[in-house]
Amino acid sequence: MTDKAKTGVPNIFPCLRYDDAPEAIEWLNKAFGFEKQFVVPGENNAVAHAQLRLGPGMIMTGSGGKPNPANPWTAERFGIYVVVPDIEAHYARAKAAGAKIERPLAETDYGSREYSARDCEGNLWSFGTYDPYAET
Question: How deeply is 117 buried, as exposed, middle or buried, from its count of CB atoms within 10 A (0-12, 13-18, 19+)?
Fold first, then answer.
C-alpha cells in the first residue's frame, strides 16, 4: 500500500487535452465548478499544463499541439497519470508484462521521473513521481 493510499489522497489523475485550453478551463469552471490550482502558460495563448480541482479531486489539462514522436501526450485527447512511489520497479514491471512503452523512464524538466505506456487496448498512461497535490 502506498503512502497516498494510506492517507486517502488521490494518486490517479485524468488528463485532458483541448484545442482551446484557456477557453476550456473557463468553461469547466463555469459549468462544472472546477477551480484553477496551477496553470503554466504556453506559446500563442496555449496552456502547457494546468491542474484543476473540484473538491478533493483533480484533473490535469492543457492545449493540444503538433504531434511529437518523443512525447505521446502531444497527440492524445485523454489519458491517465498515476503517481507511484517506486517508479523504477513500476517501469520494470510494465516492461516485463509487455506494456508498449511510448516514452522511456526519464527525468523531466519539472522534476519528475516518469514514463508513458499503452495498455492492452492502446490507452495512454503515464506513471511517475510528480505529485500535483504537492502544489497545494
Answer: buried
